[in-house]
Amino acid sequence: MRPASRLLFALSFLLALPAQALGLSWTGTVEVVATDAGTSVFSGLGIGTKVAASSDFPAVCGAGCSADLPEPNEQNYALAGFPGSLDLGGILNNAVDGNLNIQNDYTLDAGELALAAALGIVIAPGTQVDVWTVGSATAGDLIEWDVALVSLDTTLLSDFSYVGAVPDPARIDFAIFSILEQDVLENPLYEGFGIATLVPEPAAATLLVTAIAAGVARRRRTRR
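Predicted structure:
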């Protein structure tokens, strides 16, 4: 294939990619089980259970994205139709919707500080943080999961605007995941928490451009 043909093929591939298709994947181990009512599909999955999950979100808040009513130091964005997946102890669930939450100059409450301490993270009361959270939910919001990327650097987020990109991992101090199963009356049946490890997912476009650049460099070396 000629260089020009390869470039045209690459461009057609990029144009065929789904618009605004971004996602975050993570893995972890359940370290805290706050609720297990015994009637959950996850009942009996205790400390040490492995989990792997993903959540899709758009690069910009456009179709399918809507801002909920703002709360103090917090803004949530509902993401209709953005999928995700959860594997908790081998039990698989697929999401139909998602959400992205922005907490700017946020002060953790007593419950959040206690959860952090249970996970081995000590934060002084009154400490402000910036938090970028993305999550997913099954139909009816019966099962939800999310991962919160927490930074002690309160310049990570400047306001409550939608941020459709995963923050720089180098600026994240810790990531906490949560898993919730509830009944139709929103009574919790299972709640599990742990420290998340982010799974790198380079954008297909970035990989493709890198490959093209490498090919151009090889051709130049060959011609010399």
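Summary: Strands lie at 22-29, 32-36, 50-57, 65-67, 74-88, 91-107, 128-137, 143-151, 174-182, 188-199.
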